[in-house]
């Protein structure tokens, strides 16, 4: 049994974190200003490319996903903001995660994830990763989403909290090839690997 003195000597669990971003990416608060910035960027890029049809569909998809992100309680949003030759249809959010009462974090995440879960032990702790694919997004035929999720438990013996880093790659059937999807998945993994508790 742990004494009160032992408990008081334990370091407090971290409450903040950091993620390193590649050039051209920035962190935003997941609020109305961030949503407007993302949809304005989509409109600008696809109008310049002469693809108003893609612009309309992706803007609709972003707005629907933004609503879901707000409901999830996201605390940070990461996205590319610099104009590039090829638009990067990818956003990453950070969402606090709380384990269901009576479950371990391992059992909880495996029951809640939308796909097979990989658990990897790294020098700074364990990370869980899984991938989901939607053949249509919010009823939009031909609109696809790949979600890549990473759960970082708060350090400790039996964590009941963690941080979920969730990547969403939105695309249309004719717009993003399988190779580009794989490249964006590698980019997502590279960004998520920089996560550290502070």
Summarize the structure in words.
There is one protein chain. By secondary structure, this protein is an alpha+beta fold. The chain has one domain (17-197): Protein Transport Mog1p, Chain A. The protein is built from five helices and nine strands. The strands form two sheets. It has a seven-stranded antiparallel β-sheet. β5 (118-122) and β6 form a beta hairpin. It starts with a helix and ends with a strand. Residues 1-37 are annotated as: Disordered.
Highest-level CATH class? Alpha Beta
Quick one: biggest sheet?
7 strands, antiparallel
Gap between N and C termini, in Å? Answer: 29 Å
> What's the overall geometry?
globular
CATH-derived architecture: 3-Layer(aba) Sandwich
Structural class: alpha+beta
Under CATH, the topology can be stated as Protein Transport Mog1p, Chain A
Mean pLDDT: 81
How many domains, in number, for the residues? 1
Spatial sequence of strands, sheet with the most strands: 2-3-4-8-7-6-5
Helix/strand order, N-terminal first: HEEHHEEHEEEEHE
The proportion of residues in beta strands is 25-35%
Helix count from the secondary structure assignment: 5
The count of β-strands is: 9
C-alpha-based Rg, rounded: 18 Å
Q: Which blocks of ≥5 consecutive residues have pLDDT under 50?
A: 1-10
Residues in helix, %: 25-40%
């Amino acid at each position: 049994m742990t004494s009160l003195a032992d408990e008081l000597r334990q370091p407090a669990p971290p409450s903040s974190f950091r993620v390193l971003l590649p050039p051209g990416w920035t962190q935003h608060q997941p609020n109305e200003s961030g949503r407007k910035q993302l949809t304005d960027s989509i409109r600008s890029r696809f109008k310049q490319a002469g693809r108003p049809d893609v612009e309309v569909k992706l803007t609709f998809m972003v707005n629907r996903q933004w609503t879901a992100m707000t409901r999830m309680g996201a605390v940070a949003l990461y996205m590319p903001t610099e104009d590039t030759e090829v638009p990067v249809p990818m956003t990453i959010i950070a969402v606090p995660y709380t384990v269901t009462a009576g479950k371990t974090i391992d059992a909880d995440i495996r029951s809640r994830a939308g796909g097979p879960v990989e658990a990897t032990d790294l020098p700074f702790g364990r990370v869980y990763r899984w991938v989901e694919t939607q053949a249509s997004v919010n009823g939009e035929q031909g609109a696809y989403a790949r979600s890549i999720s990473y759960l970082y438990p708060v350090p400790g013996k039996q964590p009941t909290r963690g941080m979920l880093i969730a990547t969403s790659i939105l695309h249309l059937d004719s717009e993003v090839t399988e190779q580009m999807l794989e490249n964006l998945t590698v980019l997502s993994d590279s960004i998520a690997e920089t996560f550290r508790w502070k």
